[in-house]
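Known limitations

Files may contain more than one protein. Parsers should not assume a single record per file. Below, a two-record file is shown to illustrate correct handling: read the sequence, read the token line, then continue until end of file.
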Amino acid sequence: MGRLDGQSAVVTGAAHGIGSAIARLLEAEGAAVHPVDKDEADLTDSSAVARFFGGIERVDVLVNVAGGVVGQVHAPIEQVTDEAWDAVVDANLRTTFHCVRAVAAGMKERGYGRIVNISSGAGRSVSLTGIQAYASAKAGQIGFTRQMAHELGPYGITVNAIAPGFVLSNPTTQRQWESYGEEGQRELVRSIAMRRTGTPEDIARGVLFFAMPDAGWVSGQVLSIDGGHQLF
């Protein structure tokens, strides 16, 4: 018997990496999972979001994973264009806003909901990539999480965030890892108390905790899953 039997869940950014691991774990725990990635719906477009969620009868659990650096690398702030900034903020923060807005009314009507936003250690500190918009958008997700916890809590809806550390989860993070070289990789691992990088499954297990019915008095929290990196 799964801990999410009878629950309906949406996981965004589910094509690979962290999103895929979350979708698999929630499904293994009995949830009917509706995965969505940019190939299925452009979550930066409010009309596309409305169409996607309009095809789902009920959402008990929403996990916002969609985001990333959209192919960008660091540039000095004076060289960052409006378009580059907007692309990263839209991919991370706007998608989260759109999806939470889409499920809020139904969750309020039923008096139950679990929302988990995947932020980043960059939102609590600085981005290892140096991408200013990414750090800002991830910090914005944390602020949005807290505000939504305050607003939706009276309706039985919890809203929490996870701030992952360095997880080798997709081609982008793999390229980032390789760019450090052997010495840079050793330095990064030495900065982590557990002396290893994370896995998508590490993050998924944290999401499962927030998503369970038993976590009904945990809201507005930001959980760093980073192997103890934030200790340093």
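...continuing to the second record:
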Amino acid sequence: MLLPKKVKHRKHHKGRSRGDILASRKTDVSFGSVGLKAMTEGWLTSRQIEATRRVISRHLKRGGKMWIRIFPDKPITFHGNENTMGSGKGAVDHYVAVVRAGTVLFEVDGIETPIAGEALRSASYKLPVKTKVVYRK
């Protein structure tokens, strides 16, 4: 799973997700020929990114190359049940990647376009955001 080696601050604020803000970076397919683009915003955990990566790599069968364009660097804390209030913020439980609508999540190259599209389409079932397959311009 993807985890940051070192973080500046151990615990972050939660923040708010606003669906009306579109991504301004990572919006085009830059490295590969076919990409998987997020249509809605959300948090992607490192487990979800790893599950998606495994589905894509099984479709590639050592034939192509894959790029992961997102990285989970936001720590999410978990306090546990039946704790009294006032005992501080919980320990870091996992990490998520904050994804805005329009962000390209994964890219694939080196295999036929229909197979790459099918690989990304089947991998999108592992993600909690709506996605679509996009092609390089």
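Parsers that stop after the first record will miss the second one. For reference, the second record is described as follows. The beta strands are 34-38, 42-45, 65-68, 74-78, 91-99, 104-109, 131-135.
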